[in-house]
Amino acid sequence: MSRAAQPTGTTGTLVALVVAASTTTDDAVDAFVATLTAAGGDVRVVDLRPTGIDPQARPPRVVRAVNVVRSGARAARRWDADGRALAVAARVVVAADRPAVRAVWATRGWTSAALVNGVPAGVRSLR
């Protein structure tokens, strides 16, 4: 999956789905898109996942917890012009995973979209 916003081809409420965890698989992203599309969203993916990291690597528990916090801060700095434009145009911006939460809330200064944490909250906001 590329880092560019991916249109789904449906018409509905424009939703920006932000993915930032290196462990979030493309299959999971596809499932999130399908769920939000079924709820009436025109979903575009903003992929802020880091490149070059093995998602199967399992560091110790404390290291994983610290990495989640750090990866959220890094993801918040990875917004590019296309992602920002999508967040500004969207009616709903959804954080697909824990590191994406910080990236989504970093948009609050430049978007008036509803900012939600998690796909279930995104589905509720579309109803």
UniProtKB/TrEMBL annotation:
This is Uncharacterized protein. It comes from Cellulomonas composti.
